[in-house]
Every structure is written in C-alpha cells, then in structure tokens.
Amino acid sequence: MKDVKLATRLYVEDELGEEPVLGLGPEQAHFLRSVLRLRPGAQLALFNGRDGEWLARVEALGKGWASLKVETQSRPQEDEPELTVFFAPVKRARIDWIVEKATELGCTRLQPVLTHRTIVDRVNVQRLRTAVREAAEQCERIALPEVADPVKLERMLDDWPDDKPFLFADESGGGRPIHEIVNETGARALLTGPEGGFDEREQAMIARHPAACPVGLGPRILRADTAVIAALSVMQALGGDWAETPKFRNLQPR
Ligand code: SAH
C-alpha cells in the first residue's frame, strides 16, 4: 500500500490569506529542506493561530531560505473553550512534557505558578512557547495556548475571580473525586503543585479561595507532570471536547 502522508503542518507568524507568497526564515527552511527533504511542489498546511489553516506549496527553497505559495484556506479559525492550567514548574524535561501534552489536550492558557517548594529558579518561557507551537503543529490544532509569565501563588489566587471554579489538585486527601467535582461545577481551570507538594500554609491559603474546589486524583501520589495530564484528561472527557472526533484529516498526500 502506498504510504499516504498528511501534509506537514507549519506554524508561521505571518498573516495568512493576504499575500500569495510567503518567505520562511532559516530554521524553518532548513527543517523543510534537510529534515523533511521537501522539494518544490510539496504541499504544506500553514497556521498562525489567527487566520485559520491554509494549504500552501513549496515554490522554491535553498540553503537557509524557502518561499511558499499560499493557495486555499483549509480550515477557518475557531474559538476554543477556555481551559486554564496553573502548574508549579518542574525540571526541564518534565516541564516540556507538561506543555506539550497540555497543548495536545486542548489547554488554552498555561501559567507557571511559583510555590514555596518550587525548586526551579528560572522558567524559560520562550522555550515553552516553542514547545507549544511544535505540539500544535503535530496535533492539528488551529489555535495556540497562551504561555503566561510565571506568577507567585499568592498573586495567582488574588487575581482569580471568586465566582469561577478552579480545581485544586490536593494530594492530602482532602478533596472529592475529580469526576464528581467536574460534573458538578463544570470547572475549566486547574491548579497543581510541585514535586514536593504544596506546604501546609499554601494548602490552607488555596482552600480559602471561594472558587477553589479541592479534588483528589485517586489513591496514588502522582508526579507533578502526571497530575496535570490526568486532570486535563478527565476535564476534557467529562465536560470538554472529547465528545468530538478528528475531522480535519482531509489534506492531500504529498
Ligand atoms: N510531595 C508530595 C507529592 C506531590 S505530587 C508528597 O509526596 O506527598 C505533585 C502535585 O501533583 C501535588 O501537589 C498535587 O497537586 C498533584 N497530585 C499528585 N497526586 C495527587 C492525588 N492523588 N490527588 C490530587 N492531587 C495529586
């Protein structure tokens, strides 16, 4: 059987739809030419998070440059239901994993939250934004989640509205099972702690927030990255978009 591949999806910063020809910078050009080994005429899908998805063809490419011919819109831009994740940053490989998986799972806003036991002193937000773009390319997502700058836990709680429920992943056992709370509240935001957990003062402070809904994720202690992914899966399955099926797989083979 012929190996039918979907067209490569590429995130671009440019406006799409206005200009028929688009130039790529050295990194993306190198990716197309030397990694994917595309040749003139190969089809691509482009998106920028604002103008929907567009089919394009490689017009010409050389060392460090490529020009693409933008052809037709293949998908309109769509609004996605809000799904916010506040997570305590963890070490490099695991934080990249959180961001990649949360993007695949439909998270719309990711914000690192600094807590007492957070052991990471600097969060490379630019690197996280790159991970988001790559995950969105791969999972056929049309919008990009926002990666917000890190905030302290106190600040996050001060800023969060009193009437918008958020799930507080509480490993102390004080919460109710997550599926019950999601079904009852329809919460679309989540707060998870660092590898060392929230300390007692923080747990009390979070629980005092009028919108906090402490939830449990079962009898085992999950690693911080697993907790984010597991909770997002439950939120999407019960109140989110997991009732829908992939419907955009209509691109031409290249
Ligand atoms: N250091 C802690 C575990 C922290 S796990 C300890 O050993 O007790 C990291 C984070 O994942 C926690 O802060 C919590 O937000 C979440 N988490 C992990 N397991 C959980 C569970 N069973 N229920 C709810 N939240 C959990």
What is the topology?
Layout: E1 8-11, E2 21-24, H1 26-35, E3 43-47, E4 53-62, E5 65-75, E6 84-87, H2 92-104, E7 109-114, H3 125-139, E8 146-147, E9 151-152, H4 153-159, E10 166-169, E11 176-177, H5 178-185, E12 189-192, H6 200-208, E13 212-216, H7 224-239
Parallel strand pairs: 1-3, 6-7, 6-12, 7-8, 7-9, 10-12, 10-13, 11-13
Antiparallel strand pairs: 2-5, 3-4, 4-5
The structure holds S-adenosyl-L-homocysteine (SAH).
S-adenosyl-L-homocysteine binds next to α7.
What characteristic shape results from the CA principal axes?
elongated
Number of helices: 7
Following the backbone from N to C, one meets helices and strands in this order, namely EEHEEEEHEHEEHEEHEHEH
CATH topology of the largest domain: Alpha/beta knot
**The CATH C-level class name of the largest domain:** Alpha Beta
Helix residue percentage: 25-40%
Please give the largest β-sheet.
8 strands, parallel
Number of strands: 13
Spell out the CATH superfamily of the largest domain.
SPOUT methyltransferase, trefoil knot domain
Q: Hetero groups bound?
A: S-adenosyl-L-homocysteine
Strand content: 15-25%
Overall number of structural domains: 2
Ends: how far apart?
A: 15 Å
Query: Rounded to an integer, what's the Rg over CA atoms?
Result: 21 Å
**Residue runs with pLDDT of under 50 for 5 or more positions:** none
Average pLDDT for all residues = 93
CATH architecture field of the largest domain:
3-Layer(aba) Sandwich
**Helix/strand/pairing category:** alpha/beta
